[in-house]
Amino acid sequence: MWDSLKEQILEVGSVKMTGADASAYVKNNEVVFVYEGHKLPINTALESPITIRHIGGGSVKLTYKFIEVLAKIERPE
Predict the structure, then answer these.
(1) Residue 23 has pLDDT above 90, yes or no
(2) pTM for this one?
(3) Which of 31, 37, 53, 68 is within CB 3.0–4.6 Å of 19 for a Cys-Cys bond?
């Protein structure tokens, strides 16, 4: 699952961040997405077909086409 998800994220190239306190996880227009132990820095944009909705405590829901996954994002240092 990770390889397919990563490939699709990289193909689009950015994500739209929404939800509670999402901006606290963005640094230099980038967010670190964590899924099944894999980390991927992703550029953020005001508009993108991929949405990462922050649902609290670093937990997120990524939505793209027919894909919906629960994952985490890291708070920048």
Answers:
(1) no
(2) 0.91
(3) 53
